[in-house]
Automatic annotation (TrEMBL):
EC number: 2.7.10.2
Domain Polysaccharide chain length determinant N-terminal: start-end pairs: 23-118
Start and end residues of each Tyrosine-protein kinase G-rich domain: 443-518
Organism: Chitinophaga filiformis
Upper lineage: Bacteria, Pseudomonadati, Bacteroidota, Chitinophagia, Chitinophagales
Membrane spanning stretches: 38-56, 498-517
The keyword Ion transport appears for this protein: no
Domain of life: Bacteria
Protein name as catalogued: non-specific protein-tyrosine kinase
Membrane topology, from the record: Multi-pass membrane protein
Pfam family, one: AAA_31
Coiled coil: 281-308
Length: 797
């Protein structure tokens, strides 16, 4: 027993291994399925290609606009030529940082200036037949004299009529106005003027207006500012736009406002410095003027021009006066000596000495005359005596001259005394002034010191103001433009190549995925692999789809492809039946799979080979063969087994071949299964084996009733019918169970209603596309409409 169990276990393991699905990817089968459905790919490619063309034709092209600037960053070496000259002035020593400049470029204040300058809150749209397109150049200019900040998005329609008028539509009203008119709107005051630089056309223009806040927020999202890497001080700016020139204008304006703001920041510092210096200059100038006025008043009050020089003059004047006083005193002394000399009577006969000190001409003339007469007297006395009248006369003259000399000397003395007194007086005044010089000098030095300090401060401020003015005129922006804004030559979206490539991929992928999903979720048999993966029963043959309505298609002289398929079945039956096999049982999982059609034509093809064949209509619940062949079904198997008919009455000519006979089912019994268990059934099969070469048994579906299993004990081989697109995959598990457990003898599968292009794949080289299609089933199968017609027309060709 253990040996037997071991053998049974090995057999079961082998069977389970055979039942395991093969997970290897059958590329050839997949390609074959796709090739058989090529029309799906053609239709999808045409559809996706058309959609791609339409999309490209009516989509709005979008362009990338790029610009590049270099920022001065001391940490990254982005110095600007000429900046070192400004740094030497020492006025600006601020450092910049590229990351900070990126944030400034993205700041709301800078972008708001751009939006307001370019009026980006207003856009103009021309409505075409299938799409709307924004335009930049319009034949008019819409200027808002006043616009609410809380404005919501609004839209107006403007249509130029001629060179003088236009029509203006709002959501509430329509007006015809003249160019240049002012329009009072809820949102503000609008003026529309004619732009004669743009040609006037009769198109309608949509004027979309939004608030500045919304426009600024939108452009903050659109404008991209980034640093390529952390090793450089270059900033890349980019924006996407449907109008390349508009994008270039926006980026260039952004750079302009950024550079202008950079210079304004520096100028603001300079202006602040200049304003401070100017205020200080006014104050210092006022203080300096006050000090200078005090010096002027001091000099005026003290009769000073130059204190130092005047001090020197005073000292020098004192010395001069002392000298003059000495000279006068010497003269006075000489005059007094001469006066005493003249008064002395002892000297009356002597010559009066002349003096260089006394330079009075009168005195000198008298002295000269007196001395001359004295000399004449002395010469005369050498010859005469003193009593001589001549001498007497000379003496009288000398006495008169002496009196004159005394009077002259007295006058001269008086003049010298007066001069001496005056000199002494002057010397006293000068001495008094010299005593006052130190005090005045101290006060004057204090004033001079204040004047020097104020003047130095004044000159310093003047110098700094001039330096600031020079630096302001030489101020450079913190960055310079490397590449101004420039649009790409081709739009980045939509990409024609990518769109068409996507259309190609989609045109191939959509039907492929659809077919895959269809196969994946399809519960019915669609391919040979579906059969192989769900049952171990071998496939004997396939019968193609046919549009013929007759039950019997295999007739003498027929060369139709479906006839060749039945001939192939006849040949294959020889291998499974052997020499002794006669009884062939046909069953299926459910009704409608074509058992009667296949059984009838197998009987016919065997009869064509010269064999005697009997076809038993053993589907006692739902017989169809007799009805379709036009035979009377009053007597049959059901009447035979209950003894109401004989074998000879039971066997009837088929009507389509002389070697083929029919055993009809007879009236439908209430207990078919019980009738099959009667001994008469076994007796009938023994009788038929003796009379005919082949017995073809068309029985009821084994998946619904047990009739086939009851008749299986009389059969030599079993043909299990599977219909493509009709039999459920799960139903094949029944055939596997029947085969594994040996419930039916020599089971083989015949695949019925195989259609061309279905991806089934013929195993025997038949690709004609014909087969069973007369509509055995009571249910109506759905058709594929247009696709079915295309397939049939292609098959006929």
């Amino acid at each position: 027993m253990s040996g037997t169990n071991h053998i049974n276990g090995a057999v079961n393991n082998k069977i389970e291994a055979e039942l395991l699905p093969d997970n290897t990817l059958d590329v050839q089968n997949i390609v074959e399925k796709l090739r058989n459905r090529w029309y799906w790919f053609v239709i999808c490619l045409l559809l996706t290609g058309t959609l791609a063309w339409v999309y490209l034709r009516y989509s709005t092209a979008r362009y990338n606009i790029n610009a590049k600037i270099l920022v001065k960053d001391d940490k990254k070496g982005g110095d600007i030529q000429g900046q070192e000259i400004l740094d030497q002035l020492g006025v600006f020593n601020t450092k910049s940082n590229v990351d900070n400049e990126v944030e400034i470029l993205k700041s709301r204040s800078i972008i708001e200036k751009v939006v307001r300058d370019l009026k980006l809150n207003v856009t103009y749209v021309v409505e075409g037949h299938l799409k709307k397109a924004e335009v930049l150049d319009v034949p008019f200019t819409a200027s808002w004299l006043y616009l609410k900040d809380t404005l919501k998005n609004v839209q107006y329609v403007l249509k130029p009529l001629d060179e003088t008028k236009f029509r203006f539509n709002t959501s509430h009203r329509e007006k015809t106005l003249n160019w240049g008119d002012t329009i009072q709107l809820e949102e503000g005051v609008l003026r529309v003027t004619r732009n004669k630089q743009v040609e006037l056309v009769g198109e309608e223009y949509l004027i979309n207006v939004t608030s500045f806040d919304n426009a600024v927020a939108a452009y903050q999202q659109k404008i991209n500012v980034e640093i390529p890497n952390k090793q450089v001080s270059v900033i890349n700016l980019s924006i996407e736009s449907t109008i390349p020139r508009k994008g270039e204008i926006i980026l260039n304006k952004l750079i302009e406002k950024y550079l202008q703001a950079s210079v304004e920041d520096k100028n603001r510092i300079v202006d602040s410095t200049i304003a401070f210096v100017d205020n200080r200059l006014m104050l210092v100038s006022s203080e300096l003027s006050g000090v200078e006025k005090q010096i002027q008043q001091f000099k005026q009050e003290n009769d000073l021009a130059d204190l130092e020089e005047q001090s020197k003059v005073l000292v020098s004047g004192t010395e001069d006066l002392n000298k003059q006083l000495t000279e006068q005193e010497v003269r006075l002394s000489i005059v007094e000596s001469i006066e005493q000399y003249i008064k002395d009577q002892n000297n009356s006969k002597r010559i009066v000495p002349s003096s260089l000190v006394v330079q009075d001409p009168t005195f000198l003339a008298i002295v000269e005359k007196y001395n001359a007469m004295q000399l004449d007297r002395q010469r005369s006395l050498m010859t005469t005596t003193e009593t001589n009248p001549f001498i007497k006369n000379i003496d009288e003259q000398l006495a008169s001259l002496r009196a004159d000399l005394s009077a002259n000397i007295a006058s001269l003395k008086s003049g010298i005394v007066i001069a001496i007194n005056q000199l002494k007086t002057r010397m006293g005044g000068i001495s008094s002034q010299i005593k006052q010089v130190p005090g005045k000098e101290r006060v004057f030095l204090d004033f001079s010191r204040q004047q020097a300090v104020k003047q130095e401060l004044y000159l310093f401020l003047l110098k700094k103001r001039e330096e600031s003015a020079i630096s302001k005129s030489s101020n450079l922006a913190i960055a310079r433009i490397i590449d101004p804004a420039k649009s790409d030559s081709a739009p980045f979206a939509p990409k024609r190549t990518m769109i068409y490539l996507f259309a190609l991929v989609a045109g191939l992928a959509i039907p492929a995925v659809a077919l895959y999903l269809k196969d994946l979720f399809n519960r019915r048999i669609g391919s040979r692999e579906d059969i192989v993966h769900n049952t171990t029963v071998p496939i004997l043959a396939e019968v193609g789809h046919s549009d013929h309505k007759e039950l019997v298609v295999v007739r003498k002289g027929s060369v139709a492809p479906v006839v060749e398929q039945f001939r192939a079945i006849r040949t294959n039956l020889q291998f499974i039946l052997g020499d002794k096999g006669q009884v062939i049982l046909l069953t299926s999982s459910m009704s409608g799979e074509g058992k009667s059609f296949v059984a009838t034509n197998i009987a016919s093809v065997l009869a064509l080979s010269g064999k005697s064949v009997v076809l038993m209509e053993m589907d006692l619940r739902k017989p169809k063969i007799s009805e379709q062949l036009g035979l009377v079904n009053q007597y049959g198997f059901s009447t035979y087994v209950i003894g109401k008919s004989t074998v000879d009455e039971l066997i009837k000519p088929s009507g389509f071949h002389e070697n083929c006979y029919i055993v009809s089912s007879g009236p439908i019994p209430p207990n078919p299964a019980e009738l099959l268990l009667l001994p008469a059934t076994e007796k009938l099969f023994r009788e038929l084996r003796q009379r005919f070469d082949y017995v073809i048994v068309d029985t009821a579906p084994v998946g619904l009733v047990t009739d086939a299993q009851l008749l299986g004990r009389f059969a030599d081989a079993t043909l299990y019918l599977v219909r493509q697109g009709y039999t459920f995959k799960q139903q094949l598990l029944l055939s596997r169970d029947l085969h594994v457990n040996g419930k039916l003898p020599k089971m083989n599968i015949i695949v019925n209603d195989v259609k061309i292009g279905s991806g089934y794949g013929y195993g025997y080289g038949y690709g004609y596309g014909y087969g069973y299609g007369y509509g055995y089933s009571d249910t109506v199968r759905p058709t594929n409409g247009l696709i079915s017609k295309v397939k049939r027309s292609l098959a006929k060709k």
